[in-house]
Amino acid sequence: MIFPDWVRPDLNVACLELLIGLVYLADPPANKKDWRARRRADPDRLKTKLAAYEPAFHLLGDGPRFLQDMEKLSGSPNPVDMLFIDSAGGQTMRNNIDVMVHRNRYPCLSLPEAAMALYTLQDFAPSGGAGNRTSMRGGGPLVTLLDPGEELWDLVWLNVPFGQPSDMKDLPWMRPTRTSEPGQTSVFPSDGTRRFDVEAFFGMPRRLRLVGDDEGVTGVIQRPYGTNYAGWWHPLSPYYRIKVTEEWLPRHPRAGRFGYRNWLGVIAESEPKKAHEERLASLALIVREWCGQERGDEASVIVAGWAMNNMSPRDFVYSRQPLSRLSEDAEESLRGFIEAAEMVAAMLNRALSSVLDAGEAREAQREEFYLKTEPAFYQCFHQIAAGEKPSEEWLKVLRKQALDQFEAVALPGLSERDMQSMKKIAEARKFLNIELWGYGKKAGPALFTALGLPVPQKKRKRPHE
User: Fold this and answer.
1) From CA 41, how far away is CA 5, in angstroms rounded?
2) Do 297 and 437 fall into the same domain?
3) How far is CA 74 from the centre of its chain?
4) What pLDDT is stored for residue 215 in this prediction?
5) H-assigned helices in 274-390
6) Name one Pfam family in it (predicted).
């Protein structure tokens, strides 16, 4: 399968979004019927459709420039390295603390590299100081892309939203930039019913002009107060809200490995079926349409994005996860299995407080718990999709991993500890075991309930006992 092969994974993911956006711009499917009728690649048709937009995709020159301010910005150019989200910032360089990521890694970029880096920055833009706006999905958004496992065209076509071709004037660099100086209003999508238009794929939160020639790009001029987006829905990202009365927000990845613990609200429904206006989480539009059988057959899902800490990138997450259309009962079972794992991870965390301080050490144990149980979870997932409910098998996996992991950490050197520490560890082991077998005030019964298993009944003491 042909796949983007840039030098960085964030460029590869952004490249897929760019390709999807180009098809949505020039020749999207009108509806489900049209999507199915045009599944076979038609290079000649696509080339003809895209040719009409050629004037909008020049990177340099005197006319409109791809994703750049129409105005010729004045000022001293920044190093071209600034186009990359993980580049060293100005303060970092001034303080000479760019240790992990050095300055000026890319003194010059070829035109294709510069175009892709520019698109990636505008698409994923993090906060960048006063007036430097984030992307319409915030800094480093979570991206979910359906992958049928076939050719590149099949991947792109599976993710193109239904719609109509857009006018070239709808691209934000084909008009004066809608700036966001103090007092200026935010920019909302033009179609309030769809909540996104082609600018969702071609947003311009940053005011930029590239400096270079046919040999390459060597600098970037930046001015603050680019477009400040509000109320937009990107079709390739999941959203959430805290309360039904609050605004929807795009999801962002957490640093570390993406696994089944992160599924709910991203590639699996996090709550029972209800009206959209009552929900607190929404899968990406494309994923929802696939689950609703509006497009495609077999598929996995690529999950990617920058995990950010305000302006600082922590990690680029890239993962490929299985996907299956589930009945409502199967969705409920899947939620229960994931929630059960969360409960057991919390039980283990409490038990380990007897030997480990809170912080990185216990968080590492939590990560290990999910990593070690992941193969069994995927097996259970396929059983759930097939209509089975292997609750007891999953409980055994969780119970064994929690107890084995506790003992591996707590038991070595136990005889060398003082009596108080030994007693504390023994009690932690006892209560962990009690909860894992469904007893206790809350945690144990809640675990069995999540898995749809009968809660064990406490044995009543006899009067003479």
Assistant:
1) 21
2) no
3) 36
4) 93
5) 285-291, 328-352, 360-385
6) CRISPR_Cse1
